[in-house]
Amino acid sequence: MADQVKVGILGVMGRMGQAVLKAVEENDDASFVAGCDRPRHPDIGAPITGTSVNLSATIEDVFEAADVVIDFTPPGDTAAHAGLAARHKKALVVGTTGLSGGDESALMIAAGSTRIMQAGNYSQGVNLLMALVRDAASKLGPEWDIDILEMHHRDKVDAPSGTALMLGDAAAEGRGASLDDLRTPAREGLTGERVEGTIGFAALRGGSVIGEHDVIFASGSERITLSHKAENRSLFADGAVRAALWLHSQPNGRYNMRHVLGLN
Questions:
Q1: CATH number of the domain that 132 lies in?
Q2: Omega of the bond prior to 142 within 30 degrees of 0, cis?
């Protein structure tokens, strides 16, 4: 279709890259036109399975061919990718987490020349949950304790999860403060009484759980729980493709999933 948005994928042979490719191929408004992976990948130069597009070792090839580039590669190259997006005037959707200060600066600079989307989580449900948490925290006083409980598979190495911290940021924002100011340490042993207005975290690890997050608001007489459960990793890819299609028609600037979902 002539009006399809041409999508390129960096790290297309990785787990998330393959999920994004599947989501693009299943979307009638998008067309996969280019993908690259590490130069030593054994399939370089061969058609990517299920497509007629050859796997490239050159990142610049992807930016030249695509309208929007989706990047879920590991940390380390985000600043370089932002520079290529700015040079080629192509939109960039960044799903890489653990960005450095230099990466963040590079994305902000690139946003002066093109469209940049960056989010720590592309799940549409999680981003809606963050908006609900922010709104609830803004309306409930400090006498309501806030705790964030999350569970992930046994192989996850960091805790609390990045998504849990994003939910904590949303709760703190609702209270007009920063998470650094309101966060309370993990509880173990004789911790003393809880300080009013603080935000706590608890992390569970086990089995093959993709991701579950509960935000609990508790007062002296009642309790509210807002929850999200990930059933399939495809939800992150679906959200990234939705973001890419939305970003294509926007003016130059820096965006996140709150913009895509109309939650700002």
A1: 3.30.360.10
A2: no
| Mean per-residue pLDDT, 48-72 | 96
pLDDT tens digits, 81-91: 999 999 999 99
Q: Which residues contact 19 (CB under 8 A, 6 or more apart)?
A: 233, 234, 236, 237
Closest to 27 (Cα-Cα) out of 210, 238, 225, 251: 238
- Position 254 confidence tier, pLDDT thresholds 50, 70, 90: very high
Three-state SS at 143: coil
Residue 108 has pLDDT above 90, yes or no: yes
Q: Catalytic positions, please? A: 152, 156
Question: Same domain, yes or no, for 111 and 135?
Answer: no
Residues 62 and 184 in one domain: no
Predicted confidence band of residue 2 (pLDDT cuts 50, 70, 90) = low
Same domain? For 196 and 207 the reply is yes
CA triple 224-228-233, angle to 5 deg:
175
The pLDDT score that the predictor gives to residue 263 is 86
Domain with 201, as residue range(s), is 124-229
Q: What is the torsion angle, in degrees rounded to the nearest 10, for the CA atoms of residue 164, residue 166, residue 170 and residue 173?
A: 120
| CB within 8 Å of 117: residues ≥ 6 apart | 91, 92, 93, 94, 243, 244, 247, 255, 256, 257, 260
Calculate helix-pair angle for 124-139, 162-174, nearest 10 degrees: 30
